Amino acid sequence: MAERKFSVRHVPGAAPIAIVTFIALYAPIVILIANAFNAGPVIGRWEGFSLRWFASAMQNEAFRNAALNSLIVAMLAALFSTLLAVMAALAITRGRRLKGEGGIFVVLNQPLLVPEIVLAIALMIVLAQIKQATGYHGLAYMIVAHSTFCIPFAFMPIRARLEGMDLTLETAAMDLYAGRFYTFRRVTLPLLAPGILAGFMLAFVVSLDNVVVSSFVKSPGQETLPTYLMGELRRNLSSEIYAISALLLFASVTVVAASWLITRRKP
Amino acid sequence: MLSEAASGEALLRRAETRRRWSLAMPALIVISLFSILPLAVMVVYSFLTPGTYGNVEWQFSLDGWFSVIFERDLFDDTLGLADAHLSILGRSALLALATTALTMVFGLPTAWFIATRPVASRAYWMFLITVPFWTNLLVRTIAIQEVIRADGTINRLLLGLGVIDAPIQMMFTNGAVLLGMTYVYLPLMVLPVYAAIEKFDFRLAEAAYDLHASRFYCLRRVIFPLIRPGVIAGSILVFIPALGAYVTPRLMGGGRAMMWGNLIDLQFGQGRNWPLGAALSVSLTLLVMIALVLSVRRFAGGGRADG
Amino acid sequence: MLEIKSLSKTFGAGVAAYHALRSVDVTVEDGEFFTLLGPSGCGKTTLLRLIAGFEQPTGGQLVLDGQDIAAIPPSRRPVNTVFQSYALFPHMTVAQNVAFGLEARGTPARDVAARVEEVLQLVQMDHLRDRKSAALSGGQQQRVALARALAPRPRILLLDEPLSALDLKLRKEMQAELKRLQREMGLTFIFVTHDQDEALTMSDRIAVMEGGRLQQVAAPRDLYDHPANRFVAGFIGETNLLPGEAGNGQLRLAGLAPAPIAEAGAESGAVTVMIRPEHVVVGQEAANAVHTSGRVDELIFFGTDTHVKLSLPGGGSLTARTQNSLHSGTHLTEGQTVPLSLPYEALRILPDEAAHAV
């Protein structure tokens, strides 16, 4: 690169601030991960590399239960919200402008417009009534709640994909003797697949990461990983907490990296 | 013949419309039941009387809304401003604004830096921004907390170097909450601003320089007006969750540097004043929506003014 | 045989109604290369989409081999379309694209494979059968789109400006190729274009459209030599339009000697007279022609010929076209005044436009 040449893209100071920002963004994460792998019992005093805190977490039944709950909730919530989002996105993007389309749009994004703590407590109030009436205290409440606020996240990439899709492809399929269902199965769905996958993964991560709604909707004794972490944090800070945090981090990064790779691949 | 064909087409179109509405319906119903309805219940609760052990009694009362702003003195029953609440609400607004400003200070240059990298490497830089965005907010708060807590990285470092003799108390202050929120919400600023800068046609900047604009003049008159929609979008994305933040102020601010969200939580918990909590919730939601509508309107207006 | 009977299409209603097609009547014969020609917005694409079934007519009938097909959805109509954007399925290979229509109709796999092979050979794309369609050049995509539409053996092939995305050289090649395929297969093609050269070189018959109406349906030569009205005369080729008066078998151009022309008929009154630039004789007084003179305003060199812009003594202007042969007799210079001849047989009387004005 020609260093001293005039460039319209060069703004003095932008690069140093950007580098500082990237370092500030990643340093705490690196420190946290390092603490998770520390062999010593004292946080911050490095005594060598070890997996002992991961091992101790694995032996912790409360952690295992929370992890299992998190996976079940995230999996099902992502599944439901993606299904609903696909249907809604198809309704909005295929064909002429629908009367009331703006309204559908607002409702679909409504969970994003409400502060999370408000949604969490409001859901707690309503679901408490149902819990009392039915006597059921299982995971279903959490799954329903997560499915709801995951819909806008799943909806985004799916709609984007559908809007970028040429409508004449479906017209062409009809012209070639394909019925509505055959067209959907052979043309729309395969082209939409990367969007659906991305939507599913984002919904999965959003559900996996949620702490506020989970802590208010959960029944007593029920924990997800984030609510478990929150509870443990209140008691005392331990290297095990960092190990669990690191695990959550890896899980999210894996899912996000996968979805990033998928959406980057052009059809 | 003519009207027959026309009405046939109208029928077809009506069937199509019905089919599409029924496709959208399940999502609309789920959101209505589990997001809109609870919010409506919250509105109703804000007009009821607090129960003795939490919950509400079904008796109309404006006390919930009243006590958002005023409080009755315990002894002489005179009215005064609810200083405790108001200072928390004021702090929330100030901290959210300060967070937005700080994310701008760091986010705009970062977005500019990424958008001016060669096309091939941009995606990788953006990946570095999106990873924290999608990783657990709680985990990221724990990470930044580790840096500044009493036994944390900075204090250990300074103690080790002999700069200080006793750990500096950084946690549970406004500054800690501000730092935490800036750290956590920064990607939300970078994403839309980057998108705006990437779309910017740099030939326009060349034209400005060709017309004798200085670097600053070009930035102010050409570049900034054109990327402003992105900056406004980023500000909304940061300000709104920051105003209603719950997890980060709770961990970084504790009971001392509470924010609006924590105050709401308090009313539904130890405070046992659900109507007040509901009124605080509804007012926070309204504020967020007003902020959203105003900025969207300004955003649209700005776009028109810029052509 | 496709009979289009007073077909019309209106979008919207009331004041906002847009009449894309106003009562079109025409019959397309079997094995014909039939072209719909007109400027954008003339209704030609709407007509094609009605035939394909993507739009429902607001009035009239579409009769294919004696059966009204207006109510048949596109997925069951025995016509296939080559789309302007090709609309190849990006997630499928060339062969899968071509097989799509056959499979959608439930053709047995063995027959599908054979037919795909056959059609791909026909368009010379068999060597790329496993390529993803997104990885093809424009010309190759064009061939695949054609193969895909031909594979299910449609009764009529509809082509919606299929060549407009290709560069000039490739377009000329594909024009010849399409014409060859059409002749070999004896298949009916309905071809939409706004390019008059394309229409003239390829078609058996051309329907010129404007404002949602058919202006004239004729073979290319007839269309050129005997345009039905001013619009067709102006749209097909270049033309000179001169004011005149007709009556008693005589045509009188303003300020010039009368010409005996049978077309002039008995009715008398103001008419518009057309003469093609290449029919104007420059530099000599030919026999059986109206004689006048013109001042050379501008000479524009076009390679095979030169366009000569002339102004007439009466104040009008005229364009002539002279061949640049090896031994061109006259050398024209700008500013010079030259004798002109307008041969009687080159003069065409166009009907009074006032009656047709929209």
Q: What percentage of amino acids of chain A are in beta strands?
A: under 5%
Main beta sheet of chain A, described?
none
Quickly give the CATH architecture of the largest domain in chain A.
Orthogonal Bundle
Strand content of chain C: 25-35%
Q: Tell me, what's the shape of chain A?
A: globular
> Mind telling me the C-alpha Rg of chain A?
23 Å
Q: Tell me the structural class of chain A.
A: mainly alpha
**CATH fold-level topology of the largest domain in chain A:** MetI-like fold
Overall pLDDT metric of chain A: 88
**The CATH C-level class name of the largest domain in chain A:** Mainly Alpha
Query: Percent range for helical residues of chain C?
Result: 10-25%
Q: Strands of the largest sheet of chain C, in order across it?
A: 6-7-8-3-9-10
Measured by residues with Cβ under 8 Å of the partner chain's Cβ, the largest interface is: A-B, 84 and 83 residues
Query: In sequence order, what are the helices and strands of chain C, one letter per element?
Result: EEEHEEEHHHEHEHEEHHEEEEEEEEEE
Number of extended strands of chain A: 0
What is the end-to-end distance of chain A?
33 Å
| Multimerization status | heterotrimer
Helical percent range of chain A?
over 70%
